[in-house]
Write a structure and sequence with these properties.
The complex is a heterodimer. Chain A is an all-alpha fold. Chain A contains seven helices and no strands. Chain B is built from five helices and 29 strands. In chain B, the strands form eight sheets. In chain B, strands 1-26-25-24-23 form a five-stranded mixed beta sheet. Classes of the chains: A mainly alpha, B alpha+beta. At the A-B interface, α1, α2, α3, α4 and α5 of A face α1 and α2 of B.
């Protein structure tokens, strides 16, 4: 790899790494895992720097999301215990309920399978369409729709109807 | 979906993203350096595919002049070890042996032992020796050492102590033939030159392979009479490998014995990279491959029917493996694992025993010094059979 590529690459990392880390953090919920995911995506992009036409960032993001939905899935299969229901949490139904529910949802997000999480992050953080999400994750739009549906069904169980007093955590 | 759920999910995801620390300019530059280091590691990992099983036989080669005395002392690893190293997860029902001792050969199963790359298994002493070969590769027959340094290659004869440099292009990869008589050298630049050096005759053979425009990665086939390269063309399923093109090497020298044009032999309907020479089953029916979603990302390890390309079994294995069939029904996989603490610098690896039905039977975690030196995982020998 010649020096000009390394200069370009370093400049890209300096300018865009924070944006990439934001996405990676949303995908992993863990600082070290996020850094690892970004580093891996950057490494792969570096190897193909000269071959990527146009803006490099979409290419790096595609690797980032794809790796998150594949490599981390395998790891999670071995290291995590699946549970049928979201974890129990204590609830305080008061004016800060939305804030509390956001925390509950955040925890539940991190318990989702990585591919489902990636679909939601692409939708809510990056405002991607189903077609764009499918292209990034390398799957069919129908798969994206079904993954999003499954993920939201799980999360919906945490969020009651509009009446705050009806908030109840599944047990 | 309700507006409320929509708002909550969006808020939670943005909360998560906002937790990413703003890192300093210095740390960003450090990230760039680590990423480039890792890129080089990835490149090494990719190139060390079939070559790995060639070096695998390193231990066998070193042992040829020696006896097999140590085989009488069978090893007992005791019960499954409770504390697993970082990066290695427990799998219920699968015994995992963590071995810290490098003073004795590490037996996997049925006479197959962990061999090293730079740490090779010495049959005479029954110990692992650091040969200090660095970036060298011992030939499977134990006689020759090829050293690739600054893109130049040198051959040393361990029998006579004599050595000589190879003339020619700047080389990127080298792989010994299964019999150890020939060295496959490749330049991966635009020229994409491929070269075979016969160490017994010192005959230079330039191999012209038509399909390697822009360079391609050729590997030995187990027979040693054919080379193979994946056909990089996305198929209808989006798989980036459309098959394996093989080339015969039994071609007649075209000019003064130094140029060969190899003819295409066959296209095998295999949509993945064979995981080393040992990936081909003894009966020739199956091959273990790594399947990619793009040229960089391994998504699955599969057992594939060689004749039809049909997937016999998908395996829940790591993202890069080498394979060695024990018999027609069982095989070993070598699965590098990125450890949490050292994720940016080096890798750990485990060996695992599987059935052709995809059942994981047992795992071994060998000492790190056997499998990794410095910052680059050495895809050294998965295993070597000593009987």
């Amino acid at each position: 790899m010649d020096a000009s590529v390394e200069r370009e690459f370093t400049e890209f990392v300096v300018n865009r790494s924070h944006a990439l880390l934001r996405a990676a953090y949303a995908l992993t919920g863990d600082r070290h895992a996020a850094e690892d995911l970004v580093q891996q995506a950057l490494a792969k992009a570096f190897l193909r720097w000269r071959r990527v036409q146009g803006d490099i960032e979409p290419y790096v993001r595609r690797i980032l999301y794809h790796d998150s939905a594949t490599r981390w899935r395998r790891r999670s299969l071995r290291s995590e215990t699946s549970v049928a229901r979201p974890p129990d949490v204590a609830l305080v139904a008061d004016a800060s309920e939305d804030t509390h529910l956001r925390l509950v949802v955040r925890r539940a997000l991190l318990a989702l399978p990585p591919r489902q999480r990636a679909v939601l992050v692409l939708r809510y953080l990056e405002d991607r369409s189903i077609e764009e999400t499918a292209a990034i994750l390398g799957c069919r739009p129908g798969t994206v729709a079904s993954q999003a549906s499954r993920a939201l069904t799980k999360l919906r169980a945490l969020v009651p109807d509009e009446t705050p007093s009806s908030v109840e955590v599944p047990r | 979906m309700t507006d409320r759920l929509d708002r909550l999910v969006r808020g939670a995801i943005h909360d998560l993203a906002a937790n990413a620390d703003v890192i300093s300019d210095r740390d960003r530059r450090r990230l760039a350096v680590h990423a480039t280091d890792r890129a080089l590691t990835l490149r090494v990992r990719r190139r060390a595919t079939v070559a790995a099983m060639v070096t695998l036989v390193t231990a066998l080669a070193v042992g040829i002049p020696y006896g097999l005395r140590f085989l009488s002392s069978r090893l007992d690893f005791g019960p499954a070890v409770v504390q697993l190293p970082a990066g290695v997860s427990e799998i219920p029902g699968v015994p995992t042996h963590v071995i810290d001792d490098t003073s004795s050969p590490i037996e996997l199963v049925d006479g197959w032992y962990v061999a090293g790359n730079e740490m090779v298994l010495n049959r005479e002493t029954g110990r692992y020796d650091d040969l200090g070969l660095g970036r060298s590769m011992l030939s499977p027959n134990g006689r020759w050492v090829a050293t690739l340094s600054s893109r130049a290659v040198r051959i040393d004869d361990l029998q006579t102590g004599e050595g000589y440099p190879l003339r020619g292009t700047e080389w990127d990869t080298m792989e010994w033939s299964p019999d150890g008589d020939r060295l496959l050298l490749q330049s991966l630049g635009q020229a994409g030159e491929t070269f075979l050096h016969n160490v017994t005759t010192r005959l230079a053979e330039t191999v012209v392979v038509e399909t390697c425009e822009g360079g391609c990665s050729l590997d030995w086939m187990p027979s040693g009479t054919e080379l193979a390269t994946p056909i990089l063309a996305t198929d209808s399923d989006g798989n980036p490998i459309a098959g394996i093109q093989t080339f015969t090497l039994d071609c007649t020298a075209a000019d003064a014995g130094d140029v060969q044009t190899c003819s295409r032999a066959a296209i095998l309907p295999i949509r993945g990279y064979p995981a080393g020479l040992g990936a081909w089953s003894p009966d020739g029916r199956n091959v273990i491959v790594r399947v990619y979603s793009d040229v960089d990302t391994i998504v699955q390890t599969q057992i594939v029917d060689v004749a039809t390309g049909a997937v016999v079994r998908s395996l829940d294995a790591g993202d890069l493996v080498q394979a060695q069939w024990i018999d027609d029904n069982r095989f070993l996989l070598w699965e590098p694992i990125i450890t949490g603490e050292e994720r940016s610098s080096y890798f750990r690896a485990i060996a695992s025993l599987w059935t052709v039905d995809g059942e994981l039977l047992e795992r071994w975690v060998p000492p790190i010094e056997i499998v990794a030196i410095g910052s680059v995982m050495k895809y050294g020998p998965l295993a070597v059979r000593l009987d």
